[in-house]
């Protein structure tokens, strides 16, 4: 794992497949994070992760399809993750889809806002991305509120189950 950035309460590390074998501790933690309520509105491969083998399969998919960042607290306990993938519908590899999730017991503590604010600021300084695009289930008002608070704007091309928000990154 490579340290990506830190905040007052969080440490974020990029996880890459070439960094070697995944630890049993990480594989045991993933099912505790990907609970029914956390993954309720996410794609099928997020659902039903209950064992280390299923966690390994999920991680393999995530590492193949995206850049995956683990979110830890100051005690190095995994609290969630951020994932970045190409916005293929526009064939623009500088526009990225942003996804994030936090363990249910971390909800309501302001961690999502803290995490994404710092992630955006760090990306503006270190990445060549132009836009971040986040999809949010229409019933996930908390995530929509976080994105709007951080400066995302709602896109017109939302669908029946999700709204999409985008943020143009400013380069320093």
Q: Care to describe what's here?
A:
It is a single chain. The chain has 172 residues and is an alpha+beta fold. It has a single domain, classed as Aminopeptidase. Helices cover 31% and strands 32% of the residues. The protein contains five helices and eight strands, in the order ββαααβββαβαββ.
How would the blueprint of this fold be written?
Layout: E1 2-6, E2 10-15, H1 24-33, H2 36-39, H3 52-65, E3 67-73, E4 78-87, E5 92-102, H4 111-126, E6 131-137, H5 141-149, E7 153-154, E8 162-168
Parallel strand pairs: 5-6
Antiparallel strand pairs: 1-2, 2-3, 3-4, 4-5, 6-8, 7-8
Keywords: Transferase
Protein name: GNAT family N-acetyltransferase
Pfam family, one: Acetyltransf_3
Please provide a brief summary of the model.
The protein is α+β, with helices and mostly antiparallel strands and 172 residues long.
Order of helices and strands: EEHHHEEEHEHEE
Largest sheet: 8 strands, mixed
Strand order of the largest sheet: 1-2-3-4-5-6-8-7
Please tell me how large the radius of gyration is. 15 Å
The CATH class turns out to be Alpha Beta
Given the helix and strand composition, which structural class is it? Answer: alpha+beta
Reported CATH architecture: 3-Layer(aba) Sandwich
Total helical segments:
5
Number of strands: 8
Oligomer state of the chains in this structure: single chain
Q: So, the CATH homologous superfamily? A: Gcn5-related N-acetyltransferase (GNAT)
Straight-line distance between termini: 26 Å
Count of separate structural domains: 1
Q: Which outline best applies?
A: globular
Write the CATH fold name: Aminopeptidase
Instruction: Work out the strand percent.
Output: 25-35%
Low-confidence residue ranges: none
Mean pLDDT: 91
Helix percent band: 25-40%
């Amino acid at each position: 794992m490579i340290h990506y950035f830190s905040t007052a309460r969080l440490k974020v590390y990029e996880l890459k497949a070439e960094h070697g074998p995944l630890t049993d501790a990480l594989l045991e933690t993933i099912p505790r994070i990907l609970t029914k309520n956390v993954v309720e509105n996410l794609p099928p491969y997020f659902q039903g992760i209950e064992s280390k083998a299923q966690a390994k399969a999920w991680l393999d998919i995530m590492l193949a399809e995206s850049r995956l960042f683990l979110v830890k607290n100051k005690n190095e306990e995994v609290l969630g993750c951020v994932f970045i993938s190409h916005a293929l519908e526009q064939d623009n590899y500088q526009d990225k889809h942003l996804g994030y999730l936090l363990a249910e017991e971390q909800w309501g503590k302001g961690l999502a806002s803290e995490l994404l604010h710092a992630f955006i600021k760090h990306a503006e300084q270190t990445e060549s991305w132009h836009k971040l695009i986040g999809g949010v289930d229409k019933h996930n008002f908390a995530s929509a509120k976080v994105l709007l608070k951080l400066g995302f704007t709602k896109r017109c091309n939302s669908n029946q189950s999700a709204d999409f928000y985008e943020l143009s990154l400013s380069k320093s």
